[in-house]
Amino acid sequence: MSVYATYRLSIFDSIDDGHHTDYLAYLIHQFSQKPDVELLLIVPESFIQSFKKNRQIWGFDLGNNIHFHPLDAPTVQRLHGQSIYKRSLAEWNLYVDISEAWEASHGLLMYFDYFQLGMLFGKKAHFQLGGIYFRPNFYYRKASWTSAFIKKWMLRLSTFRSSMKVLFSLDHKAVKHIRPLLGKTQVLRISDPVRAYEVSAEELSAFREQWHIPANKKVCLIFGYLDPRKGIEAFMQATQHLTADELSQICLLVAGAISPAYQAHLEKLFQQFPEVEVIPIFQEIKGKDIQLCFEAADLVLMLYQNHVGMSSVLVRASISQKVVLGTHYGLLGKLIQSMQLGLVVDAQNPIQIAEQLEQYLNLGIGYSKEQMEKMAHENSELAFANTLYQGLFL
Questions:
Q1: CATH code 3.40.50.2000 for 201-377
Q2: How many helices (H) and strands (E) does the chain have?
Q3: What is the pLDDT of residue 286?
Q4: Do the beta carbons of residue 287 and residue 59 sit within 8 Å?
Q5: 200 CB-contact burial (10 Å; exposed 0-12 / middle 13-18 / buried 19+)
Q6: Same CATH topology for 7-195+381-393 and 201-377?
Q7: Which of 140, 216, 229, 253 is the most buried (most CB within 10 A)?
Q8: HSE (CB half, 13 Å, CA atoms) of 186?
Q9: What is the pTM assigned to this prediction?
């Protein structure tokens, strides 16, 4: 332990894609500036190698107070190959063993949702625990009574048995529904952290040229890990309800990591709509290239299928001052409407999507610049790290 360290914090996350890697990178960078915290990250070996290789390009610090416990590929494969119930128990027990061997004083579960069963039936942790709750959807109107009851029961019992100190909710509206269930456990809102990058006009021009992004069309962006939940199919179906003139005005930019099977599916799908210009960037996008995708766009599409909770894409759109066409469902729909960030629609209805696209092309979409700035400020990586620090240690 460092002579300066007051706290020994262990963090566990076995997933190495999407927002998981971003969150971990932000915490490494921010906690590198906090010598009173000794930080152990129990994470996939692939993440560690990628971070160390690219951190200077991405602009992340790595302090002497940051340590890694690698999970090799066979271990991750074995954990992820189990049922969600066995996986919860196995990952929790592994986390407790490693953390207690390291003599952690505090722990943080980056994806609390996964671990409730393990916390309830697994080993007893003898350190103060915090967790980030991604999908507290038991209070949604569409949630069945049985499902809501089970989720509330699991939440109450798992946090009680683990003597959980603090639970951070990414869904801010869920906090008032969670608090009555947890007794002494503190419940705090937490931001969905996003890093802003400075992008020059020359860099943006080079990015547009590299990917052949037209300057005379409205670029509609779908960004992030690409899977059926992103609503790509619904958007393509919606284009069938646009006129030839309207179709000639838009271009779809699809950017993000993707599985080989789903990439093959999308390539086949796009061939079925030859009148729609599609620019696919099928690769993981990091650092400044993330910002460039949003800066190159005119409209950010968030046509998520029954999405629960927050999304960093909404924050990135606000950072770049880009209007959103998003789902009317859940927290995202409420935020887009209440903060005047764009338009909402039934993301499963291609005709409604087409109608909103027509409005965008012919009349535009109003938005609040002040609310976009507020969204960007409240969801910075610094705000994220400070909330975690205060909730865990103070």
A1: yes
A2: 17, 13
A3: 83
A4: yes
A5: exposed
A6: yes
A7: 253
A8: 15
A9: 0.77
Residues 110 and 190 sit within 8 Å (Cβ to Cβ): no
How far is Cα of residue 283 from the mean position of the Cα atoms in its chain? 17
How far is C-alpha 383 from the geometric centre of its chain's CA atoms? 15
Which token pair is 131?
């967790």
**What CATH number does domain 7-195+381-393 carry, 3.40.50.2000, 3.40.50.1260, 3.40.50.720, 3.30.360.10?**
3.40.50.2000
Mean pLDDT by 10 residues, the chain (394 residues): 78 87 93 96 96 88 97 96 94 98 96 93 95 84 76 90 90 89 92 88 97 96 95 97 96 96 97 96 90 97 84 92 94 92 96 96 93 92 94 95
Place of tokens 């999405």: 307
Tell me whether strands 106-109 and 37-44 are parallel, antiparallel or unpaired: unpaired
- The closest alpha carbon to 175, from 159, 156, 191, 188, belongs to 188
Residues 6+ apart with CB under 8 A from 308: 134, 135, 137, 140, 171, 330, 331
Q: Tell me the domain boundaries of the chain.
A: 7-195+381-393, 201-377
Q: pLDDT digits over 326-368, tens only? A: 999 888 899 999 999 999 999 999 999 999 999 999 999 999 9
Query: Of 301, 325, 189, 205, whose CA–CA distance to 253 is shortest?
Result: 301
Cα(40)–Cα(94) distance, rounded to whole angstroms? 14
pLDDT for residue 4? 65
